């Protein structure tokens, strides 16, 4: 909330050969009681920017506490699950592309997903980029959340509350001067929550004229919504 104090702590949990996991914890401080409450936890994967074509190999992290040893062990499991997810989804997508695998969905009161499609276009300016000229990842995520929340609001008729961001991945960079096109659509609803898929494509001036986009990001954002009494709202079913 406005006026509260936010503390953000980040630490490298584990260094793999050429990548590392950074754990991020966000807490809010109550200035009256001097207590802290966790509001968000995330794990980001980084690689070092190479000089030339060779990848930068990383040194192991020196562990100093029991908590660091635990996070170090969990990091390899999170990496294994993350890579496993990619294989599972790739297999599902290959199977869904087989002829005759489509189905018709008919349910009374179902809302067409077409009504939830939202598109936004942003121009990357110098304040949106780091000293290398690459767009800040956090800026892209903020734009993605905005377009996704508008998509979710088409169903709940209220202000959606972001609960989690899943499978957020950078497939490629974008730069100052690029046009970024954000497309969001509701994929499915789960009673009190909704999944919105967002795809981001980048164009430089030449690519814009030729209509040759670069797919740079995708993510799945989970939202819920509450009424004036703070009770969770039920989302209607959707028709793909």
Description:
- By secondary structure, this protein is α+β, with helices and mostly antiparallel strands.
- The mean pLDDT is 90.
- It is 24% helix and 37% strand.
- A hairpin with a 4-residue loop joins strand 2 and strand 3 (35-47).
- It has a 5-stranded antiparallel sheet. The protein has a 3-stranded antiparallel sheet with strand order 1-2-3.
- The protein contains 3 helices and 10 strands.
Strand/helix succession: EEEHEEHEEEHEE
The SS-based structural class is alpha+beta
Distance between the terminal alpha carbons, to the nearest Å? 36 Å
Question: Main sheet?
Answer: 5 strands, antiparallel
Strand order of the largest sheet: 5-7-8-9-6
Low-pLDDT stretches? none
Helix content range of the residues, please?
A: 10-25%
For this entry, give a set of tags.
240 residues, alpha+beta, 3 helices, globular
């Amino acid at each position: 909330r406005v006026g509260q104090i936010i503390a953000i702590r980040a630490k490298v949990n584990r260094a793999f050969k050429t990548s590392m996991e950074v754990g991020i914890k966000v807490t809010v401080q109550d200035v009256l009681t001097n207590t802290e409450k966790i509001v968000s936890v995330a794990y980001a994967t980084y690689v070092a920017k190479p000089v030339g074509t060779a990848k930068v190999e990383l040194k192991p992290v020196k562990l100093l506490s029991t908590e660091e040893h635990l996070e170090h062990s969990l990091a390899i499991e999170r990496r294994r699950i993350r890579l496993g997810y990619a294989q599972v989804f790739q297999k599902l997508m290959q199977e869904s592309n087989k002829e005759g695998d489509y189905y018709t969905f008919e349910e009374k009161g179902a809302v067409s997903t077409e009504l939830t499609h939202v598109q936004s276009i942003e121009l990357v300016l110098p304040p949106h980029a780091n000293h290398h000229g690459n767009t800040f990842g956090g800026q892209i995520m903020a734009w993605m959340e905005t377009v996704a929340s508008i998509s979710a609001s088409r169903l709940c008729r209220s202000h959606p509350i972001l609960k989690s961001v899943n499978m957020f991945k950078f497939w490629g960079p974008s730069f100052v001067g690029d046009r970024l096109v954000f497309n969001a659509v509701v994929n499915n609803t789960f009673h009190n929550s909704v999944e919105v898929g967002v795809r981001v494509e980048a164009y430089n001036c030449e690519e814009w004229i030729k209509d040759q986009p670069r797919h740079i990001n995708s993510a799945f954002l989970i939202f819920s919504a509450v009424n004036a009494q703070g009770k969770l709202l039920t989302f209607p079913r959707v028709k793909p």
